[in-house]
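Section 3.1 - Work completed
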Amino acid sequence: MIFEATYKDMKKAMDMMRATLSDSEFKSGNHAVTLEATDNEDVIFYFIDKKNKVEITYKLKEAKMIYEGVATCSLKELLDALKQFSKSKEVILIERDGDELRVDDGVFPESVFFLFDDEDTVIVEEVKREVLFCSDGKTLSGMLNRASLPLKKTEFPSEKLDTQSIYFSSIEDGTAQVVSFSMHQSYYEKREVDASSPFNLILSKPKARALQKLSEGMGQLTFSMSLQDERPAIVLSDDSDTVTIVLKGDYVTDGVIANSMSAVFKGLNEKRPEWAKAMDNSLDKIGKLTVRDNLLFSQDGICLSPSGYPAKIIKDMFKNGFIQDTAVVGEVEPGAVLAIADYSSNAEKIFILSYRNTQGE
């Protein structure tokens, strides 16, 4: 097997695979990636994370097949070998030589390391699928990231609990909604999508996190479900079918919890006129918050205080997609429940914080 490819193209493929692993899993060097130069001159990388049930097929965009063949190696070793070529402007040659893999650009010193046994070859089977919707990868990633924030601080260990999940469903008017909640925080977001079929999904915290990381770098993507009942899965693919990602798991739910929660959030719209708009004389203070500060509501508006709503939690939302110029902030229940809402032409986001830090009172 011999092929040429750019550092950027190969690095993007392997970074996507790396994103599914924890630091300790990656550093173990035990996860295999299979490189295939096919007889129709494609160069394809295959990867399976068995623990998280993620399968990735990545066809390099700028590769040139020279001699067909297959090689399987450690994902970590291949990434480490490529690091020394990060500043190279040359095309990198990848060659299998017996039980070794050679990486060379003709300028920097070559890197050679041992391959895995052929029995470790990664085999990814094709999955039949039904398209649910199309979206920009960063948009989907942002939705899932914001919905994951209320789950970050929860101390429940089991992903089976409702409070460790994100509810993701379609709405009749061509939009999709995500809902999540924990003991003291909850989140709702509705956004326009190009929907093809109705869906009601439940994403466990680990699955949502994996989906968020993987979709972030995909550009325009298609979100599908496997049609094979014995192998339920979410399938992500890009427009050119360069990338196909399969996340196995049973994600279908009845939508009752999502609809009940979304009804609660929609009811908050009636309170919007009462809330203070995020203008310079009030919420500009958010940019000055530190972890020691809190937000306190008084007759004079919003102020910084030793007591009040925890600053870090509020800042996290503004760091992850809420915009001060369009946000509305107010108390649903004075001194007890804070709401932050952000409405735009194609999306609405609402975050609820139902406790305060009373230190200093």
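Second construct:
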Amino acid sequence: MFQPKYPHSDTHTYASSGHTPTALPVPTDHANPPASSLATSQPGLVEKARTNPVAIVTGVVVVGAVLTSMLLAVAITGLALSISGVVLLILVRMLRQEFHR
């Protein structure tokens, strides 16, 4: 009652107890594709840029925006750390003066 019931497999065929040798696949000689099909398969980056220069300008603008935002993030982090360092220095000096009274 509590044993799982698995459905019969559609893809697996059970082999008989004896082993029957199977024929090995014969390798086929696939020649390299001709050079003309390689040249016309897909255009390169230069050809794509010539046909759509707006994409290149857009890519340059996006990369510039990302680099500028990363530089701005580093600058803001540095400014915040320097301000917090000054505030901590002032607090430590105030605490030391209070203990020396």
